[in-house]
Task: structure prediction
Amino acid sequence: MSDEILKITSLQTHFFTDQGEIPAVDGVSLTVHKGEVVGIVGESGCGKSVTSLSIMQLVPSPPGKIVGGTIHYKSENLLNASKKRIKDIRGNEISMIFQEPMTSLDPLFTIGNQLREALQIHKKINKKQANQKSIEMLKLVGIPRAEEVMNDYPHQLSGGMRQRVMIAISMACDPEILIADEPTTALDVTIQAQILDLMKKLNHEKDTAILLITHDLGVVAEICDRVIVMYAGQVVEEGTTREILKNPTHPYTKGLIRSIPKLHEKDQKLYSIPGTVPKPKMGMLGCRFKDRCEFAHDRCFSEAPELFSLGNNRYSRCFLLDDTERKVASDAEANTGS
Result:
C-alpha cells in the first residue's frame, strides 16, 4: 500500500445543545492511503456522516464543534489550517458527494453554471476553458447530450442524473480524496450499480482515494478495499473487506452481516438486531453495544472495551477477544507446566 493521504487520530466532534453536550464522534481514528477505497458502515446515528463533515470542516457551528484529535491531510493538520487554506482544499484536493443531490445543487443555477464555478475558483481558468472542461466531465460520468444538460436546472434531471452531476462536480478538479456520503441512497438498483461502476472507474483511472460512507454492506463488498464499522460514535471493528465479511469478530458486525437477506433461501426469516443505537451522551458507562448484545456479561456493563489489535491492521472493540486471548494464554501455560 502506498503513502497515507488521510490520517485521523482520536477525533472528537461534540454538539452543544439544550439537552447537554453530545459526543457524536468519540475518539475515531482511521487512515486512508492513496488510491484506496475505504468504507465506513453502521446504522443511522452512528456518527458516520459527522465524521465526514468533520474532515471537510463543515460541521455546523453552533451547535457542533471539533473538541479533540487531529485530521492530517498528507503531512498537514487540517484543524490548524487557516480558513483560506481549508477553502482552497475543499472541493479541490478533497471533494465530497453529499447524501441528497437535490439539496446540494442550487436550484436557481444551471448545471453548467455550478460546474464552471468549481473550476474557475480552484483552477483559475477562463469561462470558455471551464465550459469545455465541464462538458468533458459530464461525458465522463456517462451523461448523454452533455451540451444540453449544461443549460438544464437540477429539477429537470432525474435522481440518478443529479447524482452523476454531483460526482462530475466533485471530480472536476481531480481531487486526491473523494468522500462519498451514501451516494446511492434513494436510487433504484440499476442506477446504484451504474454509480458504483462509475466510482470504481474514476478510482482506477485517476488513482483517487475514496472514503465511502454507507449502511449497505452490498455496496461495501462491491467497491471497498477496507472497512471501518462504527457504532455510537466509535470504531468497533476494522479490517479488509474480505476479513470483515468472511470472519467478523465484533457482535455488532456479526449482526449487520446476519441481517443481509440470502438469495438462495426462499422461506428465510429476516434477522434484525434488537433495540436501537443509544443516544450519545457524556460519560457513557461500559460497552455501547451491551444492551443489544447476546454475549454481554458483567464486565461489559462496568468497563468500556478498548480497540484490541488482532494483527495485520485488524482491530475489534470487544471483551470477547480479550477473554479469548487470556484463555489461550492460560491454557498454554497449563500445558507448559504439565
Notes: The CA atoms of residues 16 and 285 lie 20 Å apart. The two ends are 45 Å apart (CA to CA). The chain is about 35% helix and 25% strand. The first helix runs from residue 48 to 55.
